[in-house]
Amino acid sequence: MSTATKPRHIGRNISRIRELRGMKQEVLGEAIGTSQKSISGIESSETVDPEKLKEIAKALGVTVEAIENFSEESVFNFFNNFYDNSSNNGAIHAANCTFNPLDKVVELYERLVQSEKEKIEYLEKLMKGK
Fold first, then answer.
1. CB of 57 within 8 A of CB of 10?
2. What one-character-per-residue DSSP string does 66-114 give?
3. What is the CB neighbour count within 10 angstroms for residue 81?
4. Which GO MF term does the entry hold, naming one (predicted)?
């Protein structure tokens, strides 16, 4: 029995992550300064140029390692661990998670608060002008 593992198909991993992020090929192409057709070609390739891979990872909001080590199984494990938190009082045990979801919520909230402050300042300037 052979213990050799099948090499990772980087293009397919990029495609799956892009789809999970709800991003179209056109949008990814624009983000890295290339065409949809080029993204299609990259996603059909087993290997990707390291510099291009860095650009794609940045555009997708993940690390290069996350793309290289992506597997469907890890995604299912993440969501199973995320929703099955009855025994851990809400702690997340997803080892493959590259960010803290709570940090993302806080970041979004802070951006919303800043936006509201800017609106108030603008409206105050308008009111003073009358």
1. no
2. HHHT--HHHHHHHHHHHH--TTTTT----TT--S-HHHHHHHHHHHHHH
3. 17
4. DNA binding
- State pTM to two decimals: 0.55
CB 36 within 8 A of CB 43: no
Residue among 16, 8, 48 at smallest CA distance from 32 = 48
What is the spatial distance between Cα 105 and Cα 128, in angstroms, rounded to a whole number?
A: 35
- pLDDT tens, the chain, 130 aa long: 445 555 678 999 999 889 888 889 999 999 999 999 999 999 999 999 999 999 999 998 888 888 888 876 666 565 555 555 544 544 444 445 566 777 778 888 888 889 899 999 989 988 998 6
